[in-house]
Amino acid sequence: MTAGNSNGRAVYVAIIVDVTRLLARAADADEGADAADAEAIKRVGPDSEFVLATTAAQTVRQASNRIAVEVSEGDTVRFYAKSGSNNFDDGVLIEDMSPISDRDSLQDFALLSFERSAVVPNGNADVLPARFSEQDFWFWQCAVTTDGEPHCNVLLAVYDRDEQGRPRLAGRYRWVLQLTVKLTPPPASPPTEENTP
Number of helices (H) and strands (E), helices first, in the chain? Predict the structure, then answer.
């Protein structure tokens, strides 16, 4: 699928997770728990993650689990997650995402992948000229339909590495993301010969 958005802008929201802190807190909580409780989906603490809107849309306010953005009807919001090591040592994936309140403002949640050329350094000695490498980018995507303050249920799959350096599932964590969506007029189109005085 191409990454284009014919109806409006793409608004990107990054969920950054402090995996080291998260797993340490989980280990403390699991001490003395039975096996079933230890394997259960856990809640993410407010000091273990941060949400950041990486977009041209106006960000009004953002905090650990709350964000307010000004967007236009027809804009698309794309969510992705990563660890503090950029998924190099630890890894984070959004396993599932859905609204649990105010379901009218954000609709049509779906997991989508886009193939696009990524920019990478030329080599260890020279960064430029950069090289381009085809990669798959994964997002949970939804459409903006109206103003609102939706709360979204986010299920995170968190990975660490075993003694051989292979990724392993360390736990599944539930987190509630609180958004405030404020509609604004779409950005003006650049002037063309037809509409230039």
Answer: 2, 11
Hey, is 8 helix, strand or coil? coil
Confidence of residue 123 (pLDDT cuts 50, 70, 90): confident
| CA–CA gap between residue 161 and residue 169 (Å, rounded) | 8
Radius of gyration of the chain (CA): 19
State the average pLDDT over residues 68-75.
Answer: 82
Which of 26 and 165 is assigned the larger pLDDT? Answer: 165
Q: Please give the model's pTM, rounded to 2 decimal places.
A: 0.81
Residues 62 and 138: their CA atoms lie apart, in Å, by 23
Q: 79 near 95, Cβ under 8 Å?
A: no
Greater confidence (43 vs 129) lies with 129
Q: Tell me the two tokens of residue 58.
A: 């106006």
**What DSSP string runs through 19-70?**
HHHHHHHHHHHHTT--HHHHHS-EEPPTTSEEEEE-SSSEEEEE-SSEEEEE
